[in-house]
Amino acid sequence: MLKKYIVRLNDQERAELTHVIKKLSGTSQKVRRAQILLKSDADGPGWTDAKIAEAFNCRTKTVENIRQRLVENGFRETLDGKKRATPPTPKSLDGEQEARVIATRLGPPPEGYSNWSLRLLARKVVELGIVDSVSHATLGRTLKKRHEQSQNAVLGHPS
């Protein structure tokens, strides 16, 4: 099959890719992209997509996508990866709110309940005015992340 996107690197780009590979600078994805670009260079080794995919343990579609990205978006974006269009959302709870949620969870459940459920805890946290609104999933992540630490602080470390 004829390649639609042909990689042709100049000397400066080849030198930068070689430097990234030798020094293993950057993420593992960046190093892999550098290796793929070097091997797919038409003026260099010019390996086939299948041979590159086998050598670097990836799919041939990955090799095709990297070649396409180089031709369409340029060298810098291909090597470094695309930047996020929207930054990640900030945390729903700050440290003090997390501590109050954990303290509430470690306390006795409301009358008529034997244990805290995440939905029950979410209603109670809003009722107590710790936060204006919170989902049970957010509380689950908070408790999963902090539960062992808080349990050790309250009960003492098992060792």
State the secondary-structure class. mainly alpha
Tell me, briefly, the overall form: rod-shaped
Strand content: under 5%
- Count of helices? 8
Number of strands: 0
Main sheet specs: none
The sequence of SSEs as H and E is: HHHHHHHH
The Rg value, from CA coordinates, equals 26 Å
Amount of helix: 55-70%
Instruction: Please mark out the parts with pLDDT under 50 across 5 or more consecutive residues, or reply none.
Output: none
Rounded average pLDDT: 87
Q: Alpha-carbon distance between the termini?
A: 64 Å
How many domain units? 2
Overview of this protein structure:
The protein is built from eight helices and no strands. It has two domains: 11-80; 95-155. Helix 3 (49-55) packs across helix 4. With 159 residues, the chain is mainly α.
Write the layout of secondary structure elements.
Blueprint: H1 11-23, H2 28-40, H3 49-55, H4 60-73, H5 75-80, H6 95-106, H7 118-127, H8 136-155
Helix pairs in contact: 1-2, 3-4, 6-8, 7-8
Features:
159 residues; mainly alpha; 2 domains
Concise summary:
The chain contains eight helices and no strands. The protein is mostly helical and 159 residues long.
